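Lecture 7, part B: from sequences to assemblies.

Below are the input chains for today's worked example.
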Amino acid sequence: MKSATLKSEPIGEVIASNTTAFSAVVKSGFGDALPVKFGELVKTETSTMKIFGIVSFIEHAPTEPNRKVAPHGKSKDALKREMPQVFELLQTEFRALVVGYETSRGVVPSMPPVPPDLHDFTYLATDEEQKNFFAKTPTFLRTVLNCRDASPDELLVAFLRNHLAHISRPMLISIGKELSYLLGDDHRRLEAILSRVCD
Amino acid sequence: MLQLQAIYRRLEEFSEKVVTEQKNLTQLKSVLEEVFEENSDFVKAWRKFPESLESTIAPRVIESPSLRKTCPKREATFTICSSDGSQIYPDRLINFCLLNFSQICFHIGTNEPPLLTTYSKLYDADEFFKAYFKDSKPKETEDKGSETSKERIAIDQVNALRQTKELSALLHVATNKRTQGRPILAVADGTLICWTLKNAEALRKEFIEKLAQFRQEEIPVLAYKSFPETRSVAKALEHLAAEKLEQANIHPEMLTDLEIFQAFLQKGERSAVFQSRSDIVEKHYPNPDKVYFFYLHTGKEIARIEFPAWCYEKGWVDFMHAVMMDDLEKGKGYPMTLTEAHEHAVVKKSEEAQFFELLEKLCIKKGVLISDAAKVASKRTAII
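Predicted structure of the full complex, as structure tokens:
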């Protein structure tokens, strides 16, 4: 297994972007430990702005869309030794739901004025950035509940569980209240989300 | 929707034909087993190579034609390289061609990373023509209506250039990626006989020199020909064993080498080694690089494997046989390494469109608007 990716190391490169989401191809070789997981806070960074996104979809696929993955009946180790091109022709791509951005004036919990540039590198958000992000009003909840890439509830649970260590108790209560408001009378759904965040 | 009822009767007739062909194949096998016997009159005559064969393309016998060799055990680790090429042909307004080459290398049985790379090169038509075809006029294409009077590189001349440069690319990757103490095999697509270079002396010389360099570097090289249409062994049968075959109701003049070895070989087996007597090889190839070949039953087809004579003399044939069967199994019927070489070399429609768009932008920057059939065609999308 590869050692955990350092926060300052790029984990991927943007290949598609708009103001609501961006997609990136994972930098590490296929078959290595993934440097990113579902529901994790990631960012793109330029000299003037960081754009934050929650990983909402991860996909393994061929690098060439016209090629099809076929079973070979070999273990991964045997494949690497006997058919080494197989792993070179596969890649992992992830999509991130944009939930805020940061300029010199601090974190803004809304859509950025411009999307990330194509070929920008993507990084995991640092501890400091996670703290700053969760110190703001949790407007990301509405964005996540409208997500179409994944089940919004699953994404929300994964996101909160991944970053629980950086969410203060008052903020957690604030998230719970906001979620209760957004879900209206659907108490079972609220319970299903909250019970899984903290169990 | 398929109307099976409408074609049922015809399908029945066809199925009878298939059954008959299969029966003929079985019959052909038993006749071949008899005539290919080392002590048969046919083989004795073939080995003497009578005058009647001289004017044909019948090959020389190197191993006993009765040989059916099962696949030997493969080396645990080896390196396999291949290369392929594709092109954008010149057209009415564009007086140059683009060649795109792949270079592939796998270190099988190791954890070393593969090489999967491509490089492109533009050739100016006039310079190319002066360098390689100064003694012959470029052929006009059949579509003369769309040709201007200005001389252009003809399609088969671009193909000739590509064949030579593919072999150079293969030699380059093989010499650069070989590892001390590990066997290596260089695999080309098609043939080692430079048919297309008959009228291109400079390119032919270059091709033959590159082939010789494999020998100097001691890198075994072969060419894999899928579904060969040759009739070389068939020619020997036609001239020396016609009577025997006709007695069994087999018409030798209708046979191809593919049919002969489809009947004679089982999956994984190779035929005897023969020596090609192609004109171009006889006249221009040095003795150690004369083209030898065998046929291989891949399980899906009969392939022709060509290699220089020195590979046989140095005992590389078993290695080639085992490596190719391994590569064929991994590629599910077609060599995995050649598939990769092709996939990486091919200029896709979308890339061709990008190429012409870039050219158009560069011309517009210089104040010239180009509008060309090739460019338009490259942008055309199939409609529903």
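Note for the exam: Residues 12-198 of chain A form one domain. Keep this in mind when comparing with the next example.
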